[in-house]
Amino acid sequence: MKDLRRYLVLKYIQYLVLSSSNTISTFLGLLGSLYTIIILQSAKVSSKSTVVLISSLAKADILVSVSVASEMVVWTFDVSISSTAFTSALLQNLLTANTHISCLLLSCVAFEAYLITFFTTESRHLRTVKNARLTSRIIWILVTAECALFQMDDLLKASSTSAPTRSPWILLFHFSSTAAALLRSLSYFLGILLRIVNVYIYYKIFFSMSNR
Fold first, then answer.
1. Residue 20 in contact with residue 100, Cβ under 8 Å?
2. Nearest-angstrom CA–CA distance, 212 and 209
3. Domain 2-210 CATH class label
4. SS3 labels along the chain
5. 143-195 per-position pLDDT tens digit
6. Which of these, 132, 141, 144, lies nearest to 108 by C-alpha position?
7. d(CA 86, CA 158)
């Protein structure tokens, strides 16, 4: 469907073209995800692997909605939060999780488009709804674990000043801090790699279609 293609273009611009999200792109992305979730409920939309990936991509914006709604409630009603550091870190980690899930799912869609274009028959057994759902679940599980590690690291940093200088708490702090730093570096380089791979894939697809 053309609407789903437009939605994918919007998401590619939001996550893989723009260096950082802004208010306009975030708002348009939320509207696009809401509209996509609605049209995917239609019986006219066939259940294909690409549709499964797009559905998971749209649902990832629920994390953004939670973060934005929480900030609006705090700002509008001047709600006092007992643990400001924990809450702010959680909201930021939700946005990070959304970005990582979206980038990975968009890359899966691009890879599937590559298989459809160049290996239509050979890849048919891979491009199934079951595999798409499994891939989406794996991505969500991995990014959730990443978000949990980041949250634990932020929590330990916030409470490190009151912790004893010599205790298992310090060992846990150093471990989580090192693991989180390595994971952030890995995520950064993986993000760059995904941008390059996506550009290459659509470059190949575009020139392949134009030569036909």
1. no
2. 5
3. mainly alpha
4. CHHHHHHHHHHHHHHHHCCCCCHHHHHHHHHHHHHHHHHHCCCCCCCCHHHHHHHHHHHCHHHHHHHHHHHHHHHHHCCCCCCHHHHHHHHHHHHHHHHHHHHHHHHHHHHHHHHHHHCCCCCCCCCCHHHHHHHHHHHHHHHHHHHHHHHHHHHHHHHHHHCCCCCHHHHHHHHHHHHHHHHHHHHHHHHHHHHHHHHHHHHHHHHHHHCC
5. 999 999 998 888 877 776 555 555 566 666 677 788 888 999 999 999 999 99
6. 132
7. 8
Say how far apart CA 111 and CA 178 lie, in whole Å. 32
Q: Which residue has the tokens 């053309």?
A: 2
Closest CA to 31 of 53, 4, 61, 72: 61
Q: How many whole angstroms separate alpha carbon 95 and alpha carbon 90? A: 9
Domain ranges in the chain are 2-210
Residue-wise pLDDT tens digits, 99-151:
999 999 999 999 999 999 999 999 999 999 999 999 999 999 999 999 999 98
**Predicted local confidence at residue 44, as pLDDT:** 73
Tokens encoding 158? 């916030």
Tell me the C-alpha distance between 67 and 129, whole Å.
30
pTM value is 0.88
